[in-house]
Structures are given as C-alpha cells and as structure tokens.
Amino acid sequence: MSDTISTPAKWLAELFGTFWLVFGGCGSAIFAAKVVAADEATSSSIQLGIGFLGVALAFGLTVVTMAYAVGHISGGHFNPAVTLGAAVSGRLPWRDLPGYWVSQVVGGLLAGLALLVIAKGQDGFTAEGNMAANGYGEHSPNGYALGAVILAEVILTAFFLIVILGATDGRAPKGFGPLAIGLSLTLIHLISIPISNTSVNPARSTAVAFFNGNGAPGQLWVFWVAPLIGGLIGGLLYPLLFENGKLAVGGTKEK
C-alpha cells in the first residue's frame, strides 16, 4: 500500500467497506434468510429463503468485492480484530489503529441504521430480536453457552487472521488474496451461525446490537473481547511461525 495514500482516504475506505459488509451480510439475514411463499395448489407454504448457506456466502461476497474495490487503499480490514492483528504482525502502524477502529464502527452503525429503516418499510416488522444480532445462551441461535461462544469466536477469528496474513504475504500468489479471505469468512459463517450468529468482527456486532435490543447490547462485550483476543493470537502466530526467520512455507527454515 502506497504511503502517498492520505489517512482520510484510508478511513473512508474502511468506513465504506464495513458499511458494505454489514449491509450485505446482515441485510441478507434480515431480508432473505427466511422467505416463505404460499403454494396455492397444496395450501402449504414454500421456503424460498437463502438460509444459512446464503447468508454465509453473502458475508464472504461483501469482503471479496470490497477487498478488490478498496483494499489497495486501506488494506481492506473492515474489522477491528483484523486491524489489531495487522498491527500486532507489523503489517500496520499502531498509530493507524484508532482511526481504523472508529471508521469501521461508524460504517457499521450507518449500515445498521439503513437496514432498520428499510426493514420498517414492511408492515408489522419488529426490530427487537430481528436485526441479525450476535448472542449466547438464550440469544444464541441454537442455545450455545457463553464459554462455547467465546471459544468459537476466538478460534475462528485467529484462523481468519492467519488466512488474511498468509493470503496477503508477499510470497503468496498475486491477486487471489480477496478470494481466499472471502471464502474463509464464508466457511467461518457456515461453522458458527448456529453458535453465535457469527461475529468474528466487533464492528459487525456493534452495528446491529442496539437496534436489535433483546439482550444484544448487554452481550456485546463478548463480541469485542473474543474476536480481539482471536485477532491478537492470529496476528502473533503468523509472523512467529512463518516469518522473521522462523518456519517458512513448506516447513523449512528461512535463511
């Protein structure tokens, strides 16, 4: 990333990218995950929604598209945990972290607000419990306990960072980083939507928690703490194992 790119341009890229991630990912969950149509021939209903698979793919596609669109400007983080991991690994100056975090949270909140306004265009829509918020216990899609949610979020975020740092390593194939990162996020959602509705991104969780209510604001701390721990672990592990004279790709020692 060129040093000639201005700091405000980087902030704006992160804001737009996070907006798109939340709008596309959470929007698919709110509007398209469960769509039921009546089958007049059989007097029954037909499920036309995209389900877990569609929502997982939507999150992955938001990252792929914005990473290609603005990744060359800001690095394409769109996630405070990714920014922390990038700083820890030496890929981003620590002085840039606060501005990235603020941009990501603001972009996410703007997307959450836009989703709320659109959703309220449907008669009878109630925001409480219907804004794709993350949660544990009774607010977990399948009732997973706090410890299980924390462990899943830490592991998945750590591996997400390892994929990101590996796919954008100077030794990696050129031009394929966004695809690997987007597919990784899709896989993460396929694993953990039933567990926590998938965060691995504090900005994504913050974006809808306060509009959703129903316990989400009180549980939001988990979806800051766990992803940040995961980002920290991933940001430390990749350089330790694969850079700086340690184990290189293929298991050989770098000279």
Description:
This protein has about 260 residues and is mostly helical. It has helices at about 5-30, 50-75, 80-90, 95-120, 145-165, 175-195, 200-210, 215-220, 220-240, and strands spanning about 35-40, 45. A two-stranded antiparallel ribbon has the order 1-2. A hairpin with a 4-residue loop joins strand 1 and strand 2. Helix 1 (about 5-30) runs parallel beside helix 4 (about 95-120). The chain is globular and about 65 Å long. The chain starts with 6 loop residues before the first helix and ends in a 13-residue tail after the last helix. The relative contact order is 0.17.
How does the SSE layout of this entry go?
Blueprint: H1 7-32, E1 36-39, E2 44-47, H2 51-74, H3 80-88, H4 97-119, H5 146-167, H6 177-196, H7 202-212, H8 216-219, H9 222-242
What fraction, in percent, of the residue positions are helical?
A: 55-70%
Mean of residue pLDDT values:
92
Radius of gyration: 19 Å
Unreliable segments (pLDDT under 50, ≥5 consecutive)?
245-255
In terms of DSSP E residues, the strand content is under 5%
Number of strand elements: 2
Class inferred from helices and paired strands: mainly alpha
Strand line-up in the sheet with most strands: 1-2
Number of helices: 9
Largest sheet: 2 strands, antiparallel
SSE succession: HEEHHHHHHHH
Q: What does the overall shape look like?
A: globular
- N-C termini distance: 26 Å
